[in-house]
Amino acid sequence: MLNEFEVSLQPVDSFTSTQLVKNKYENILQQLDSAIMLFDSEGVLTFINMQMAKLLEMPRVALNGCNLLQILQNPDLNRFKKKKIIKIYRETIFQRKRYHELIDESGQHWLITVTYGDQMDGDFLISMKDVTDYKQIEQTAYRNDKLATLGKISASIAHEIRNPLTAIRGFIQLLRPHLLQLGKDEYARIILTEIDRANDIIYEFLNSSKPSAPQKKIVSVHSLLKEVILLTESEALMTGCQIVLVEESSPLYVSIDVKQIKQVILNIVKNAMDAIDELDGERNGFIEIKLKADKKYVQISIRDNGRGMDPNTLAHLFDPFFTTKEGGTGLGLSVSYRIIRNHGGVISVDSTKGIGTEFIISLPLCTGC
Description:
Blueprint: H1 4-8, H2 14-31, E1 35-39, E2 45-48, H3 50-56, H4 60-63, H5 68-72, H6 79-94, E3 99-103, E4 109-115, E5 124-130, H7 132-181, H8 185-209, E6 217-220, H9 221-238, E7 241-246, E8 253-256, H10 258-277, E9 285-293, E10 297-304, H11 311-315, H12 332-342, E11 346-352, E12 356-364
Parallel strand pairs: 7-9
Antiparallel strand pairs: 1-2, 1-5, 3-4, 4-5, 6-8, 9-10, 10-12, 11-12
Domain PAS: 21-76
Organism: Paenibacillus sediminis
Keywords: ATP-binding, Kinase, Nucleotide-binding, Phosphoprotein, Transferase, Two-component regulatory system
């Protein structure tokens, strides 16, 4: 009888050795965070890991040994995924593209890499990696850069326009006695009023594109939200919308610039009413403002049952000048983003087309207040 040491020295046949190596590498591929599938030179799927099968929402046993056409004809594969697979196939074969980007139904960003060539012996390796976090970082950096540029442009515009307006105003005031003698004082009054209105517009634009440093004071979040609801109640009733406040029993306090934060919340609530109004009475409008807190932050959730947004709109929602409203400036949410960031907070949004939208504003909790 062979002891344990002698057994370990017994030769292993080449088939068993190859199978062990294959199993080892397949196990490694299963543990990767990337989704992987491998087609041989005949176009037959020879390997797919669990992550890829999960993304396709199909069992691995139903996919292994199939060619691309058989996979596309599988009734369990939804229409969205079929369209994306066909698009990637065409771009790879006809345009020789090796890298593809797509946004799935839930708004997640994926980087798809197709590896083929002599080193692959005719095989095609397709890998997919979730790059949503990287995209969010990239978009945040891009958004911050645009906001900084916007601030510089607005300051320059304000300076260049205000100077001639000031000069015009001065000359009109000098001419006013002569216009009064001619019985045309009304003209002077209108000109001065319009110059002042132009100055007010410039001031509002400058203030909105480059919010001033917050003048903070400690306030009750409950009181702030109550005031916002009072300001919007009449407009909500006109659009057939109900606003409900759900809050925690314990009082919550934050250190904020009340005017700025109120501006942010009012802007989101009014956007919610607009989204509900666009439904044209398809269902009763509903806006829920919910308040809760953890150890560090107060969370203000503003959820509506309006028309919702698609992933592309969501991706650009906080970009300056991006708007889906006719006649909108596209500054409201980009300014809101900067105001919340200046308060050390975070603003996020989740939306589903046809169902509704939820904004969540997180602000540092004032402890010991």
